[in-house]
Design brief:
Blueprint lengths: L1 E4 L6 H5 L2 H13 L13 H4 L2 H17 L2 E5 L6 H11 L8 E5 L5 H11 L4 E7 L5 H18 L1 H5 L2 E5 L5 H9 L2 E4 L13 H9 L4 H15 L8 H14 L4 E6 L5 H15 L7 E6 L8 H6 L4 E8 L26 H19 L4 E6 L4 H21 L10 H12 L5
Helix pairs in contact: 2-16, 4-10, 5-10, 5-13, 11-16, 12-16, 13-16
The protein binds 5-phosphoarabinonic acid.
Amino acid sequence: MINFELNKAVSEKEILAYGEKVSKINKMINEKTGAGNDFLGWVDWPVDYDKEELKRLLVDAKYVRDNFEVLVVCGIGGSYLGARCALEALKGIKSNDKLEVIFMGQTFSPNYTKQVLDYLENKKFAINVISKSGTTTETSISFRLVKALLEEKVGKSQAKNAIFAVTDKEKGALKTLCNIEGYHTYVLPGNIGGRYSVLTPVGLFPLAAAGIDVEAMLTGAKEARKELDNDDLKTNICYRYAVSRDYMLRHGKNVEMFVTYEPQMSQLSEWLKQLFGESEGKEKKGLLPGSVTFSTDLHSLGQFIQDGTPVLFETILNIKTPELDVAIPHTDDDLDGLNYLEGKKLSYVNQMAFLGTKKAHEEEGGVPCNVIEIDKLDAKTLGYLFYFFMRACAMSAYLLEINPFNQPGVEVYKKNMFHLLGKKGY
Ligand code: PA5
């Protein structure tokens, strides 16, 4: 479903030299041994997911789609980025869908929060609150605010029917609230961490409400699971990619720059930054994930990438055929000098920008470029891509001898913030 072109700075021999290590780690992933093994639920999720729960989720999502103008999704990190990136990748940035999806709870920004609350005053809206722990401060504050607005608008008993929660099966403040209030609730399984949860109700509820074919997404992930669970480094593109990342890091490239030529894929880069950054950035190890959207950023960071400190390599996500296209018109005077492109599609210009930039970065800039190529982006391919990256991330982190599934560093800021806010026990 996707093609992977390995960067030219690493040879086939160097990739194959990882054979033994990859074989061992692949076994560890499949058999769920190794560090953080109680968080490997995502590996078999595309076949193991709760079919009955999905049916209920699809009915409820359709109810939201047919009865509300806006769905407010409250969540942060892994409880936010997957849905946001899939929504933009598949629907575009200026989507005119009948259900508007607004994200809240990914920030403490008073400006953003107040603007959203004001906007919702005159809208018929439902809420989808997502938190595995049920105690994340950004999410909880937003949910408290938006729930109060909803209850004020429609009354507490009506509000209940418009609140849909995704949380742990048993634990956490949100779960307690769901039990007491009787909200519609879906489970984020205990053995799947936030940044590996996009194919669970965390991503599926808001995406289904937005009219996306989430069953196709799961089918794509299922295909990926079948194709990528083996240790053949000659053919398994997921592990070829993971090994190339490890090789780059060990050869002085400390930054992986995710590159897209499609602005509606920019949020996918944000999801990738979280997936790799939070999984690998531990014990003073790991690649720093960055992202750029070209050609826009060729007019900013492009200079650094071409000529600056040689710390990075690129992983380019190239979609060959866009959903929509525009042809360049003729003008009689040709004052802007563009008639040489008359009749050409913007997709053609974009692809030429991609090829020209890649050549410049590789040949003159000395920047190694991996390319992940997709013919056409749809729900099934995106499901495949999600699984591909999660599995590549687990392999990469294990190659660094790191537990991919915890995030001990994230707790430090929280402790300080809670102390400053006067939370009990801090
Ligand atoms: O990947 C992760 O585990 C984190 O990014 C979490 O998803 C994020 O902190 C939100 O946590 P929660 O779902 O518990 O609110």
